[in-house]
UniProtKB/TrEMBL annotation:
Domain of life: Eukaryota
Species, as recorded: Leptosomus discolor (Madagascar cuckoo roller)
Enzyme class: hydrolase
An MF annotation (GO) of this entry: RNA helicase activity
Keywords: ATP-binding, Developmental protein, Differentiation, Helicase, Hydrolase, Meiosis, Nucleotide-binding, Repeat, RNA-mediated gene silencing, Spermatogenesis
Keyword ATP-binding annotated: yes
GO biological process terms on file: germ-line stem cell division; meiotic cell cycle; regulatory ncRNA-mediated gene silencing; spermatogenesis
Reactions performed catalytically: ATP + H2O = ADP + phosphate + H(+)
Domain Helicase C-terminal: 228-389
Record-listed E.C. numbers: 3.6.4.13
Name this protein carries in UniProt: RNA helicase
PROSITE patterns reported in the protein's UniProt record: HELICASE_CTER (PS51194)
Length: 654
């Protein structure tokens, strides 16, 4: 079902399949398909590896920025190695338990997928790991360098030492790195560890960072833009200057051109309503000019592609662009990009391309994206742009005010991706004040008994607070099940309503549920799926509409009993933002449906943060309960969790 390589893959696959070192930066730089087909192709050539020592060890190593990406790459490898020789790919994710690393067996495995942290834990006990390694692949290289700089360079050093020996003269050695953003560590990777690499950059704004384009931001009032532009064009350069002034409308282009001519600046002009055709403009632009001359072309963005200019020395953004348009504008200077692979003395002689952004009070709509880019490009950023961005962020957060509180914020105290996260990161008193939940969640300062019933991940569960003396829900559940035992009481609902409460039979038990979503147009059908929430357990599910039963009002009086519990002060290792499924499965098996004692340290809405949460065992003969395990300690014991001391402090700051 594969239609063929896309634009970036078309440039990457040939050099990778020939065994060359390759760096690729692209908008699709997080797609493993940039390297999987050509690497598998090269690995078919068994004769290339005959000179390698006859030991256990992989031929190819794929380093991924986290367990989730490693899992994805491993699944793709399993799919595509079916039609190749047996490579026995292996996924290795290791925690801090040394015994687990010691017990890993690498036999007949030719491709390993792992993370930098896991690899170094493995390397402690498998010192010959690099003895046969020919292909080192860095997946999402920009993320690897930002999250695990030291670890990645340690691995690169080990690989460099391994292939430096004489026996490697007759064997392939290749580094492939793919990502979405350029950074300074990638420059070091190219110079120190790669051999005459192919550098493929299809994201133009990233190419401009590679090409050392100077980024200048000039704050001004919208009414002052023309005066600022004239000041920029007051040339004193000895070299030929070819300047593009980008505007966002025909009227703006006309106005700028008129202002330049009235100040005796020779300028060309092109837009979709212009009387000059593209051929004439290009003839004027490409004419041979003497040194010290300057050519200015005023244009709109829709003319860029038709003109195909790549030799501009300066781009002036008279109108503030989106980031993608910004990159396309910068491409107009690509002939003057420097090459980071060149020696410093050669780069110094390279004429520096320049990009000038006019920042006005009307520039807010794209300020966040441009600010991110300029910070990434190490440009000097005026305070005005920071102020714009802060206002934009504030406005974005206001739009999310009715959304749920961010799950990462709740679980770990911080959200690393606030810009793209769709959920709320501030308190909304209307939502977050405890509503319709047990009084004990507010009134009990000490320990409560909790029953986890739905496990979201290792530290996040839904369940109930149980009253040891007289539990209201236990009484209600018995009454509901007794009521529905009579066939005459099982009345299917004819008109399903959103947010209404119903009964539902699951195996032999009856539950209270609430309809939270009815797909559009489904109501016209006789049978359709609805999304429901088990209001006393917290889990959600899809059921058929005819399965919902009429629930008498007397069974709706008790508020929903489901409470969200979050275990405090523990987080995944290795800067991960999600729990490894191994930990979640282990904790689910340990705690689901079992009574626990917990101290509530914080509440918001129907969420309770607990520290500690302890599993208890009831000794019926002695009429006492004993503490069996601490949930936080159980998570830490897996080696895949670590201390998170700032968790509660961050919540209190909110």
């Amino acid at each position: 079902k594969f239609l063929g390589p896309n634009f970036t893959e078309s440039y990457c696959w040939p050099p990778v399949a020939r065994g060359c070192d390759v760096l690729a930066i692209s908008y699709q730089g997080n797609d493993p398909f940039l390297y999987i087909p050509p690497v598998l192709t090269f690995l078919q050539l068994g004769s290339c590896y005959k000179a390698l020592p006859n030991r256990n060890g992989p031929l190819a190593l794929i380093l991924c920025p986290g367990w989730k990406k490693a899992q994805l790459v491993f699944e793709l490898l399993k799919t595509y190695t079916r039609c190749s020789r047996q490579l026995q790919p292996m996924l290795i994710i290791l925690g801090q338990n040394k015994e687990a690393a010691r017990s890993v067996k690498i036999q007949r495995c030719e491709v390993i997928v792992t993370t930098p942290y896991s690899l170094l834990r493995l390397f402690e006990h498998h010192s010959f790991f690099f003895c046969r390694l020919c292909h080192l692949i860095l997946d999402e290289v920009d993320v690897l360098f930002s999250d695990a700089t030291e670890q990645v360079f340690t691995i690169l050093d080990c690989y460099k030492k391994a292939v430096a020996t004489e026996e490697w003269n007759y064997s392939p050695h290749q580094i492939v790195a793919v990502g979405t953003h350029w950074n300074k560590h990638i420059a070091h990777l190219i110079k120190e560890f790669m051999d005459d690499p192919y550098v493929v950059i299809t994201a133009m704004e990233e190419a401009s960072i590679y090409g050392n384009v100077q980024q200048v931001v000039l704050p001004c009032m919208n009414s002052e833009r023309t005066a600022v532009l004239l000041k920029i064009l007051d040339f004193t350069h000895d070299n030929l200057q070819k300047v593009l002034v980008f505007t966002n409308s025909v009227n703006e282009a006309e106005m700028v051109d008129k202002a330049l001519k009235s100040n005796s600046i020779f300028s060309l002009k092109i837009h979709k309503e212009s009387k000059f055709n593209f051929k004439y403009i290009l003839e004027q632009w490409t004419k041979k000019y003497s040194s010290g001359s300057h050519v200015v072309l005023v244009l709109t963005d829709d003319c860029m592609q038709s003109l195909g200019i790549t030799d501009a020395t300066c781009v002036i953004h008279f109108s503030f662009p989106s980031l993608r348009i910004f990159g396309q504008r910068l491409h107009s200077m690509s002939d003057n990009f420097c090459d980071v692979i060149q020696d410093y003395s050669v780069r110094q002689k390279c004429p520096k391309a320049r990009s000038v952004v006019l920042l006005t009070e009307n520039s807010t709509c794209h300020a966040l994206g441009i600010l991110d880019y300029l910070q990434h490009a190490k440009a000097e950023i005026p305070p005005e742009l920071h102020d714009f961005a802060a206002k934009m962020l504030e406005a974005e957060e206001e739009k999310k005010f009715s959304r749920p509180l961010c799950a990462y914020l709740k679980t770990f105290g911080i959200c690393k991706n606030r810009r793209v996260c769709p959920d709320r990161h501030q308190i909304n008193l209307q939502i977050d004040v405890p509503q319709n939940i047990l009084d004990t969640i507010i009134q009990t300062p000490g320990c409560v008994t909790i029953l986890p019933l739905h496990i979201v991940n290792a530290t996040n569960y839904f369940g109930r607070i149980v009253d040891k003396l007289k539990d209201q829900y236990t009484i209600l559940a018995e009454e509901i099940n007794e009521y529905f035992k009579k066939p005459s009481n099982k009345i299917s609902v004819k008109n399903v309503e959103k947010l209404a409460f119903y009964g539902l039979c699951e195996k032999t038990l009856f539950h209270r549920v609430q309809v939270i979503e009815i797909p559009p147009k489904e109501e016209e059908n006789m049978f359709f799926n609805v999304k429901i929430k088990y209001i006393d357990e917290g889990r959600t599910s899809q059921v058929q509409n005819y399965q919902l039963l009429h629930l008498p009002a007397k069974f709706q009086c008790l508020p929903p009993q489901a409470v969200e519990f979050v275990v405090c002060r523990v987080k995944p290792i290795d800067n991960e933002i999600e729990w490894n499924p191994k930990v979640t499965h282990y904790i689910e098996h340990k705690i689901k449906g079992k009574l626990h004692e917990a101290k509530i340290v914080h509440t918001l809405g129907s969420t309770a943060w607990v520290d500690p949460m302890v599993g208890i065992e009831l000794l019926s003969d002695l009429k006492v309960s004993v503490n069996e395990y601490n949930v936080r300690s159980a998570i830490l014991s897996t080696g895949l969790g670590t201390d998170n001391p700032d968790h509660v402090t961050q919540l209190q700051k909110l």
